[in-house]
Amino acid sequence: MTVQPPIPMRPGFKAPEQVAFHRTELTVILSLYGRMVAAGEWRDYGISNLRDVAVFSVFKRTAENPLYRIEKRPKLRNRQGLYAVIGMDGQVLKRGHDLKTVLRVLESKLIRVVD
């Protein structure tokens, strides 16, 4: 069995970067997440940092599909908006350039009629 040494990096070669949420973005998302957990709506979350998208997934129970996905796609920055909230069925609920504005669609889930 032959073991090949790793390929050295060429000068000027840049490895593909991952898209990730910034600390200020995570503060806004986790603030909403905390309120929804306190209300009993959400129970778990997952974060994925991929090459072209960062995803914050929200779950009602741990072993099922996410209820909502909050996505950050830098390639859409100049078009439809950097952030998107996507429902369980894949439908885009809200898209925009400001994270707080986009997350308002989920905050409306906290408002309930009191009898």
Short description:
It contains 2 helices and 5 strands; from the N terminus they run H-E-E-E-E-E-H. The protein is α+β, with helices and mostly antiparallel strands and 115 residues long. The longest helix has 16 residues, at 23-38.
How would you sum up this structure, described in words?
By secondary structure, the chain is an alpha+beta fold. 22% of the residues lie in helices and 23% in strands. It is built from two helices and five strands. It has helices at 23-38, 99-107, and strands at 44-49, 54-59, 68-72, 83-87, 92-96. Strands 1-2-3-4-5 form a five-stranded antiparallel beta sheet. Strand 1 (44-49) and strand 2 form a beta hairpin. Helix 1 (23-38) runs parallel beside helix 2. The longest helix has 16 residues, at 23-38. The protein is globular.
Average pLDDT reading: 81
Number of helices: 2
Instruction: Quickly give the structural class.
Output: alpha+beta
* Whole-angstrom Rg: 18 Å
In total, how many beta strands?
Answer: 5
Strand content: 15-25%
How would you describe this structure in keywords?
single chain, 115 residues, alpha+beta, 5 strands
Q: Strands, helices and their partners?
A:
Elements: H1 23-38, E1 44-49, E2 54-59, E3 68-72, E4 83-87, E5 92-96, H2 99-107
Antiparallel strand pairs: 1-2, 2-3, 3-4, 4-5
Helix pairs in contact: 1-2
